[in-house]
Design a protein that fits this description.
This protein is an alpha/beta fold and about 425 residues long. It is built from 15 helices and 12 strands. Helix 1 runs antiparallel to helix 14 and helix 3 crosses helix 12.
Length: about 425
């Protein structure tokens, strides 16, 4: 057993187990260290190509970087208003109106946060009480489960199930309508909808969103929509639709997004929450005590990106379509079962033809022996059996990086 293999084994052996001598609060003990940090560290230790954590290996547009320097030189270096600098909130409102035809009051309906992750935490802390229930689709971005726990709420899970092995490559992940209906109760406070969806790449259809909307209205439930991949969609026949635009949902939806995915500046951590003044008040009640405000010059640069970034977005989507197709074709040729994503920059594949016991064993082997790091997606499932046969790859990389990764993956034998 190599050093890296032993290291990965220790990581997973530790997993979610709480050390009796730990000073970590009980609410966080079940979650351990996020899988993204662990796999990136292991990739670095093994010298593996990192297709696990979803960050690009290239920078965003030059004009956005230049805007940071201009903002600093102009003296935008002190605390921003807690809701966000007016230049950015106005830009977000303008983009929203262009996309949806709906107007926003930037001062009362938009809150700029430290990335979408803080927007999620502020949303649940600010709108949920202990004992409330929150519906999550699984697999889920791992922060969702922790944010619900921070708020003292109880999660209810609805499974997104992988298409059958004989389905076409573009077949979507699906959920059972009766299972979704059964997840609602008189204690349900919120449902979280992530579309386009990490990690499956699913783009929810209008029919699916209308079903969710009808249940929210029926049970007086708010919808929390994580839409950070809103512009990273690849199928013109399956566009991104905002749940807030569905009848009855404008005043009961909080839409969360960020700069990082659309403009490849994940390290800037500029996100936002959009909602009615009443829901925004809940978000801000928590946000003011979490970060109060986020980096002022980066907010000014984010405004420039949103106002002038259409060409950059088109170029990025074109690049990701190419890396997606390259990865999907190559994995299929190697023997994986491939589910081609309609959005995001992640691809889920079935590794079962290679004979490993589960996703953890497979990702251990990939990192230590093949030199490519990927995510074992059971980290995103409450019901682990739904994900043991799967592996998640990120394709938000240069084409040269993807080619090198596939060269290494070719050592696998199905």
């Amino acid at each position: 057993m190599t050093h890296t293999t032993r290291r990965i084994a220790r990581v997973y052996a530790r997993g979610m187990t709480a050390d009796a001598s730990s000073h970590v609060a009980d609410r966080f003990r079940p979650f351990g260290t996020t899988i993204f940090a662990e796999m990136t560290r292991l990739a670095n230790e093994a010298g593996a190509i990192n297709l696990s954590q979803g960050f690009p290996d290239f920078d965003g547009p030059a004009f956005v970087k230049e805007a940071v320097g201009e903002a600093i030189a102009a003296g935008h270096n002190q605390y921003a208003p807690t809701g966000g600098v007016p230049a950015l909130t106005t830009a977000i409102a303008g983009r929203w109106q262009r996309d949806t035809g709906l107007s926003l009051d930037p001062a009362r309906q938009i809150t700029v946060t430290a990335g979408c992750t803080e927007a999620l935490a502020a949303t649940f802390l600010g709108t949920c009480n202990p004992g409330d229930e929150v519906i999550l689709f699984e697999p889920y971005y791992d922060s969702y489960r922790a944010c619900v726990a921070m708020a003292g709420a109880t999660p209810r899970f609805v499974g997104l199930r992988a298409p059958p092995t004989d389905a076409p490559p573009n077949a979507p992940y699906t959920f059972d309508e009766n299972e979704l209906r059964g997840a609602f109760s008189d204690r349900t406070r919120a449902i979280l909808v992530n579309t386009p969806h990490n990690p499956t790449g699913k783009v929810f259809t209008r029919q699916e969103l209308e079903l969710i909307a009808s249940l929210c209205v029926q049970h007086n439930v708010i919808a929390v929509c994580d839409e950070v991949y809103e512009y990273l969609v690849f199928d013109p026949d399956l566009p991104h639709i905002r749940l807030a635009t569905i009848d009855g949902m404008a005043d009961r939806t909080l839409t969360l997004s960020s700069l990082g995915k659309t403009f490849s500046f994940t390290g800037w951590k500029i996100g936002w929450a959009i909602g009615s003044p009443e829901l925004t008040a809940g978000v801000r009640a928590a946000h003011q005590f979490l970060t109060y405000a986020v980096a002022t010059p980066l907010q000014h640069a984010a405004a420039a990106a949103i106002e002038r970034g259409d060409d950059s977005i088109r170029d990025l989507v074109s690049h990701y379509r190419a890396t997606r197709d390259y990865l999907a074709d190559a994995l299929s040729d190697l023997g994986f079962g491939v589910s081609v994503p309609a959005g995001t920059y992640f691809l889920m594949a079935d590794h079962s033809p290679f004979g490993f016991a589960d996703d953890v064993a497979f990702c251990k082997h990939l990192t230590s022996e093949i030199g490519v790091a990927a995510i074992p997606p059971t980290a995103f499932y409450e019901h682990k059996d739904l994900g043991r046969h799967l592996v998640r790859f990120a394709f938000c990389k240069k084409m040269a990086t993807m080619e090198q990764a596939i060269e290494r993956l070719s050592r696998l034998k199905s």
